[in-house]
Every structure is written in structure tokens, then in C-alpha cells.
Amino acid sequence: MSKSPLVFLIAFLACLWSAAPIPAQGAALRICADPDYVPYSNRAGQGFENKIAEAVAKALGEPLEYTWESTRSRGGFPEFLARTLDANKCDAVMNIPYGSREELTTQPYYVSSYVFVFNKSRNYDIRSLDSQILKRIKIGFENDTPVEDGLKIRGLIPATIAFDVGSNSTESPEVMLNALDSGQIDVLITWQPAIGAFLRRHPGLEVVPVPNARTLGPPEQYTFPMSMGVRQGNESLKRRLDDVIAKHQSELTSILAQHGVRLYTPQ
């Protein structure tokens, strides 16, 4: 006895259903982050990268899942990316320079700068790395940053104190501000988001951005647009994150402000 057309239709639809990929239920936004590097991130979720990630996950309608790995171990940030994002242990990082060669980057969601920090009572006239006063005072700076290169070009390294907070997981960036308060250094040159969360505890300090300029020679870069990063080839997630940035920029900017991150327009 022949089967009815309805039976054939049901069988055909069942085949289509079994062959189609089943969407993942409760797929998470997997983020790589440092477990102990405030003001950026920690396991308690206190850093501004944590709060940015929470806002992005909420906007995407996805739960948030972390892969914890130190950014300050041997090899630094590039090795951190190799061990986590490139190894497919997560899908994104929340804070990477725009246009990074290592990963695919979203549109920038903030722009900040390296800054000069000094006691307001000193009234230093510091406007750039070429300011003459820098030849007569004790400078503190972070190792392995564009500032180190700028100081070397000007022959200022011998009279400086270098801080290793970017590679020493036992130190907080606030040690640099404490060095100012104690008189160990007269001026600090560092990435502003690294110290922004601590500045409220040091109200006597002046903060001046380092301009992208030189008195002689080619310009230097000290102001950087910052993005979210995904693995090369993951254009789909990049587009989704770009959409979140475009639609929720004011919320992301508010989070940064709450964590003391100052925004700067390149000069």
C-alpha cells in the first residue's frame, strides 16, 4: 500500500531537521583577562576591563565567561595573547591598541594618553618630553613603553628610575604615585589608564598629557586609540562588537570615567 503525501512530507522535514546545525544554547562571551591587575581586571570583577566586558555581554544577551591568565608573566602581553586568544581558550580581549598586528581589532571605544604626573605645588612647566625642566629633575617611567624610547632618544635615561609594574605581577601601578609622594621621583611618565583609578587617593597631583610631538625630528606617538580584540579571521564577532560599541558608546565611556580613565584627543 503506498504512503500518503503527508507521510513523505513529515519524513522529509525530519531529515532536514536532523541535518541542520543546532544553535548553541547559552553560548557565552569568552573573555581573556588578567586575574590580578587592577585597575584593568581581577577575579573579583573590579577592573574597568571587567565592567566593559559585563556591559558588552549584556548587550549581546550572552553570559560572560573568563579565561584567566597573567599579562605580566614572561613574554608580556603578546605571549598572553598567544596562550589564550590565539589558542582558542577565549574569543576576545577588552583592551588592545587599535590596529594591533597581533589580532583583529574593533573600532576604538576610547582614546587615552601617556601623561606627566607631578605634585601641583612644584608648578613645573612641562609640556613635552623636550621641556628643559626634565633635564634637572628625577624622572620615573614604566619599562618597555614608548616613553622609554623617547627618553633614550633625548639622553635622559641615566637620570631616571624605571618601574616594572607592567611585568611584575606583585606590584600595583600605585607604587609609582607613592614614589612621587615620597619624593623618590619628581615627575612620573606613565599610561594614564594605569593610574586613573588611584588618582583620587592622591589629590595633590597634576596630570598633563604627553603630546605626539618633538622639537626636532619626526613626531612620536603617546596617544593611542584602544579597541577590543578578537582572533584573526573572526570577522563575525568583530562586527558584533563593533555594533555594541556604536550603540552603547555612552555607557562604555561612563564606565571608563567611573574608573578614572581620562580621554584625550590626539594633539
Explain how this protein is built.
The protein has helices at 5-19, 48-60, 76-83, 146-153, 174-182, 192-195, 235-258, and strands at residues 29-33, 36-37, 41-42, 64-68, 92-97, 104-105, 110-119, 139-142, 160-163, 187-191, 205-209, 223-230. With 267 residues, it is of the alpha/beta class. It folds into two domains: 27-110 and 225-258, 3-Layer(aba) Sandwich (D-Maltodextrin-Binding Protein, domain 2); 111-223, Periplasmic binding protein-like II (D-Maltodextrin-Binding Protein, domain 2, 3-Layer(aba) Sandwich), CATH 3.40.190.10. Helix 4 links the parallel strand 8 (139-142) and strand 9. It starts with a helix and ends in a 9-residue tail after the last helix.
Mean pLDDT: 90
- Globular, elongated, flat, extended or rod-shaped: what is the shape? globular
What's the CATH class label of the largest domain? Alpha Beta
Number-wise, the strands total 12
Largest sheet: 8 strands, mixed
- SSE series: HEEEHEHEEEEHEHEHEEH
Query: Helix share of residues?
Result: 25-40%
Number of helices: 7
* Total domains: 2
Question: SS-based structural class?
Answer: alpha/beta
Low-pLDDT residue spans: 1-25
Instruction: Give the end-to-end Cα distance, rounded to a whole number of Å.
Output: 84 Å
- CATH topology of the largest domain: the name is D-Maltodextrin-Binding Protein, domain 2
Rg, Å, rounded: 24 Å
What is the strand content? Answer: 15-25%
